[in-house]
Write a structure and sequence with these properties.
This protein has 20 helices and 2 strands. With 413 residues, it is mainly alpha-helical. Helix 12 runs antiparallel to helix 13.
């Protein structure tokens, strides 16, 4: 009786296994017919990938991936013919298929024993998966989906789609030299990586953005911007140590870009480390003495420290290296202007009428010294509103009506 029961259980288990394998085969047939039934195929394969008898079979997952692949291919063909397709549905099919194919390859590479007891892997499934994944890569289906999601302002999804496209060539199945040759890590590769980082930034996925920009900060596409964004992402994570290291590394790599040095100096100033700011700036100038922007930044730092003569000398040196630097010209004007402002504050404390009158005369003389520099800077950069606003104030102070009205009209354009 017990033996009969045991045999009955074996028959039942065998029948269940056979039924699930039949479901896999049926699902495949449903998508290969002239009018594919993707919904029915997904229902059947959904049962098979959960069943203990078929969930560890590479072919089960391959067929699962084939459903989305076939649906995507069908929509690609329709699009070529000028037909409107559901971009979101297509993208979902691609991502679904991608994940299933990855799982299929993992299972295919787990050794099993053949009839002779030898360990073998399922190379047939791997080749089929590779072929389909290369189609996704060449058609850039994931890139297209990422662009669509970005247009919908679904930045997290856009990031995930781009990252899958990028990481495709790093999958174990893609490590053959001939395959790698078809997927070069060229400018386009770095460009897609860059966009993935932007999407992560927009989605406030700061850890993911850091991972992206760390990977491409020395790459072939917008390396300066990548380092700037990396610094900002570390700031968002409140990781001051890595933010500062990013700036220091970029200063050495991109000496012609003052943005990094300026932000490092600002960091030191705002954190009360003035001497460190001065020391690092001097080191940068010693390393790259002919970068005009470095001398301009030093002028700003000296001006903030109220070292007037040193600041003027710094701005003059910047102009020797770059005669078209309007900011350095305005910097000289700002030295006199800010000094006049301080003189005005000090004059308010003078009680003696004669001394007070003399202080106001000296103050106005200092304001007048600033005027020609802001006028010259305005001529060099007519659209700079900061220069115009300062000129409006100075023209008003000295009752220069015609020039005041002219600059006010420029500001109101």
């Amino acid at each position: 009786m017990q033996k009969s029961l045991f045999l009955a259980v074996l028959v039942l288990m065998s029948a269940t296994c056979f039924a699930q394998k039949a479901n896999v085969k049926k699902a495949k047939n449903l998508i290969l017919q002239e009018e594919p039934d993707f919904a029915a195929a997904r229902m059947l394969i959904g049962e098979a990938i959960q069943n203990d008898e078929t969930k560890n079979d590479a072919n089960t997952w391959y067929v699962a991936g084939l459903i989305g692949f076939t649906e995507c291919d069908q929509m690609n063909r329709a699009q070529v013919l000028g037909q409107t397709i559901d971009e979101e549905r297509k993208g979902q099919a691609v991502e679904e298929s991608y994940d299933y194919f990855v799982k299929a390859d993992e299972l295919a590479m787990i050794p099993t024993l053949d009839k002779k007891g030898r360990e073998v892997v399922d190379t047939k499934t791997r080749k089929s998966v590779i072929s389909k994944m290369m189609d996704f890569y060449n058609n850039q289906d994931l890139v297209k989906y990422g662009i669509y999601l970005n247009d919908q302002r679904e930045f997290r999804g856009a990031y995930e789609a781009f990252i899958k496209h990028i990481k495709l060539q790093d999958l174990p199945m893609m490590q053959d030299d001939k395959l790698q040759a078809k997927m070069p890590k060229d400018t386009i590769y770095y460009q897609y990586y860059y966009y993935a980082g932007l999407f992560a930034t927009q989605a406030e996925m700061h850890n993911e953005a850091v991972e992206v920009f760390e990977a491409i900060k020395n790459g072939l596409y917008e390396p300066i911007v990548c380092n700037q964004l990396l610094f900002q992402e570390y700031q968002a994570l409140k990781d001051t140590v890595k933010a500062v290291l990013t700036l220091k590394d970029a200063i050495v790599r991109f000496p012609e870009e003052p943005w990094f040095l300026q932000n490092l100096i600002n960091h030191y100033i705002f954190s009360g480390q003035i001497q460190q700011a001065i020391d690092y700036l001097n080191e940068a100038i010693e390393r790259e003495p002919n970068v005009a922007q470095y001398h301009y930044i030093k002028g700003n730092l000296d001006e903030n420290q109220r070292h007037q003569e040193a600041a003027l000398a710094d701005f003059d040196r910047a102009l020797q290296l770059d005669p078209k630097m309007a900011d350095a010209v305005a910097g000289k004007g700002r030295v006199y202007y800010n000094n006049a402002v301080r003189m005005n504050e000090e004059a308010a404390n003078i009680s003696d009428a004669k001394a007070y009158k003399k202080a106001l005369e000296d103050m106005n003389a200092e304001f007048r010294k600033s005027l020609p520099f802001f006028e010259e800077a305005h001529q060099m950069e007519p659209d700079n509103r900061d220069y115009m606003i300062t000129l409006r104030t100075l023209y008003y102070r000295f009752d220069m009506s015609d020039k005041y009205e002219a600059i006010k009209a420029e500001l109101n354009k």
